[in-house]
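[step 3/7] fold_predict: job queued, chain A
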Amino acid sequence: MAMEPGPIRICIQPHPDRRVANGLPLYISYVEYFGDDVSGNQSKAWNKHWNQYLSHRNLPRHTIGSEFHVHLLSTSQDLSIPQQFRVFKKIIESTKCHPIQTLDSLTGKHIKLQLVLLSAAADNPMVSELASHIGAKGNYYCRKCTTGGTDEEKQTNATYHTLFS
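[step 4/7] structure written:
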């Protein structure tokens, strides 16, 4: 069976990202976002606030976790991690059309950077909050299924068997 030629693809020159760079070298910088709730007190009293951190993922693997490569983005007692992340995401997305202009440390020439969010890491409770997950104490396991029910319903034989079937 002979293969038929596929559609002809026309390569657009220059690449659309080159237009926003205005002739300067354009680089992609991958960043990792991390958010967590912490206490600001040194005493035993819990003074909850939320921190956002950023690390640069283009670095060599053995240096990524170093203290000086993790940067504090913001901290707030009033704005939760999803609310703070929304602002950070807008900044990331804005670099697609308006890259950050900076100097290349090796050449001393101007370059432009686009930021790309590679991953958003968090511990289990924070991931549940980011995903709007109710957790293990909810009456239903998710918003879409009807498995579960109130505590009284869960103690009946019919509901108990639906949980484990």
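[step 5/7] annotate
The radius of gyration is 24 Å.
Residues 135-165 form one domain.
exit 0
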